[in-house]
Each structure stands twice: as C-alpha cells, then as structure tokens.
Design goal:
The protein is globular. 72% of the residues lie in helices and 5% in strands. The longest helix is centred in the C-terminal third of the chain and has 31 residues, at 141-171. The protein has 172 residues and is mainly α.
Length: 172
C-alpha cells in the first residue's frame, strides 16, 4: 500500500455486523453501508484517483498562482467530489454507527504502513523547522505570517503522523 491508499482507508470502516461502511465526510458526517465488494472497489478507486489528481492541482495552484486561485481549485474539487460521491452511493443505506477520529487514523495508518508514516513525520518535522526559520528570519510581515502558518499546518501534520505511528504500535 502507499500514501494514497492510507488516505482512502480513513474513509472506510468495518461495522459490528461485518459490513463495510463508507464515510464520505469522515467523522463529520454519516456513513453509508456499501452493498457489495464491487461498489467498494469502485468507491476506493474514485477516491484514490480524486486524491491523486487534486494533490498536484492544489500544489501547483499554491506555488504558481494567488491564494484565491488555490481556494477556487479546492472548492471546485470538493464540488466534484460531492457530486461523484452522491452518484456512486445512490441508494446506499445509512450506517448505524459513526466513525471516530481514532478509528479513522488507525485505518489510515494501516494503509500507509510504517515506512510511509515515518517519512511523513520526518518531512513534516523538516517543514516545521523551515517554517520557524522563515517566521524568525523573514524580512516582511507577510512572509513571517506565512512561516507561522507553515509551522501550524505541518505541526498538525506531524502530530497526526505520530498518532498514526502509535496506533500501529498498539495494534501489535
């Protein structure tokens, strides 16, 4: 498995009755019971392809364009995700149980694997350090704020990576 498989796994859970439920909005929304493996496979492929397409689009928009362009790409992407998710899950029953943050992180950790999680933690830690340097050494207020935002974002990424690594250790 890899990075995107880990992201996809976060949206799925095996329910107490042995069925698989899909949580398109994660812990923020209701789950949908997937009727069979073919539908699950289709959903997983859609989500993985969506993530693989959106990642470079968001990064390119952030690097080469203004912030509002990045925001617009995100909004359009989420609109597309919403429409496709509705289309792919039409007629699915609502799951009786919710997915917790802990379950979502554990599922994601299983998909990522230990090496990938250590690499994500190391990369996040590096970006935290770069953000601190930028916040302290930048010549303008705008760049100092960007450094502080970098620290906040990648600090959160580092915390999530560490939580996922711990969840793998607890499973043993």
């Amino acid at each position: 498995m890899g990075y995107f498989d880990g992201l996809v796994n976060a949206a799925f859970k095996k329910t107490q009755d042995g069925k698989v439920a899909y949580y398109p909005w994660g812990v923020m929304g209701k789950g949908l019971v997937i009727p069979d493996e073919a539908h699950e496979h289709r959903l997983r492929n859609f989500i993985k392809t969506f993530y693989m397409g959106m990642f470079p689009l968001i990064v390119c928009a952030a690097v080469f364009f203004r912030p509002w362009h990045t925001f617009a790409v995100g909004v359009i992407g989420m609109g597309y995700f919403y429409i496709q998710s509705k289309r792919l899950t039409r007629g699915f029953a609502t799951a009786a149980e919710a997915i917790t943050v802990r379950e979502s992180l554990a599922n994601s950790a299983q998909g990522h694997g230990k090496r990938s999680l250590y690499a994500l933690a190391a990369g996040s830690g590096l970006f935290v350090l770069l953000g601190v340097w930028m916040a302290l050494a930048a010549p303008t207020t705008e760049k100092r704020v960007m450094g502080a935002l970098t620290v906040a974002f990648f600090g959160a990424c580092l915390l999530v990576s560490v939580k996922m690594i711990r969840s793998l250790r607890q499973d043993k």
